[in-house]
Amino acid sequence: MNDRRVVVTGLGLVTPLGHCVNEVWQRLLDGHCGIHTFTTIDTTHHKVHFGGDIAEFDVSGFADAREVKRLDRFTQFALRAGGTAVQDSGIDFEQEDRTKCGVILGSGIGGLSEIEAQIEKMIEKGPDRVSPFTVPKMMLNAAGGNLSIYYGLKGPNFAIATACASATNAMGEAMRSIRSGETDIVITGGSEAAITRMGLAAFQNMKALSTRNAEPHRASRPFDIDRDGFVLSEGAGVLVFEELERAKARGARIYGEVIGYGTTSDAGHITAPDPEGRGAAAAMLAALNDARISPSDVDYINAHGTSTPLGDKAETFAIKQVFGEHARKVAISSTKSALGHSLGASGGIEMVIATKSVVEGMIPPTINLENKDPQCDLDYTALRPVQRKVRVALSNSFGFGGHNACILVSELR
């Protein structure tokens, strides 16, 4: 059963650049930036005042008004992106064996806004005033659980938390589930809503974030010598993965094929990457081996590229280890330059973008890359998009805890 092939038939996004896949894609190509001074939280007493928060958001098409109040923000994002992906796929679950349909989503933190709100309520008003909906709102598996309930899906349904690698690990496990014959269809990707006063303070105080308050739109600058940290963002990227023959039989539009997945651990520092990028390199190589392709077959890498001093160098070193001479020929970009870093959701968002690059034959740019770091000396598609045939795209995700996850999407072969 491991020879079963997995394809992408649906795409859904919620990002600071919009909630429509085609709109977000075009805005990326046009060099727009979704980073701005925060509008959803009060940052008066914080050192950092900007990021990729999403002020206008509507989930009404996928949950009634009463139910929305019982859903944390990260679950609402997942319902919107997941529901959009299902609509895009054209699947009618009434016609499917729902025991063969699953949901596997990633999130690094889960319902942080609910945790924060209820702690404040307990301190101010006492434990009896804590909401009885706190647990089902905050739990990491709430996004997948609510998606499965909405569509009545009774196959595998679980959440993965590997920090910023969460969504990519979730998609890799979704691919494996379909390959093995356990499932035919999986809704997968990730969602995150960690922009709260506590979340911002925590990342700010560990000195992980850019402090470029005067120029929010120029703050995320992966691979640039003047980068000073990542920009906190939020959102969701959700895809529908489907077994190839099943997709063909129902006449589905196929965006691309998911051909390989690799995951490793640095087993080093809890937040810093291996400085030589050895764990990241091992994950990329594992994905290539899983796909049974060579490094020279890869045309585009959507880099993890968070705009941190250590991370961008380590990823560059890793790419050189794996790709050798081809490292200087492959197109690379970090779309976090425009979208910021949505932590556990980032892999899902970037898999949607990698898939679009295969479909459209375009490499989205790394905006704000004005002065390349001499130690980051590859082709990062600085400032402007590039038209290029993309047969195979690689999406990288590396997270706190030493988690590395890489996934490959290709043209249908």
Using the CA coordinates, give the radius of gyration: 20 Å
Large-scale geometry: globular
Q: How are the strands of the largest sheet arranged?
A: 5-4-6-7-1-8-14-13-9-10
Please count the beta strands (DSSP E, at least 2 residues each).
14
Strand content: 15-25%
Number of helices: 13
Estimate percent helicity.
Answer: 25-40%
**Unreliable segments (pLDDT under 50, ≥5 consecutive)?**
none
**What is the structural class?**
alpha/beta
Distance between the termini: 19 Å
Mean pLDDT metric: 97
Main sheet makeup: 10 strands, mixed
Succession of helices and strands:
EHEEHHEHHHEHEHEHEHEHEHHEEEE
Which features characterize this protein?
single chain, 413 residues, alpha/beta, 14 strands, 18% strand
What is the fold's blueprint, element by element?
Layout: E1 6-14, H1 21-29, E2 36-37, E3 50-51, H2 65-68, H3 73-89, E4 101-106, H4 112-125, H5 134-138, H6 142-151, E5 157-160, H7 166-180, E6 185-192, H8 197-205, E7 235-243, H9 244-249, E8 256-265, H10 278-291, E9 300-302, H11 309-323, E10 331-333, H12 336-339, H13 346-360, E11 362-363, E12 386-387, E13 392-399, E14 403-410
Parallel strand pairs: 4-5, 4-6, 9-10, 9-13
Antiparallel strand pairs: 1-7, 1-8, 2-3, 6-7, 8-14, 11-12, 13-14
Helix pairs in contact: 3-6, 7-13, 10-11
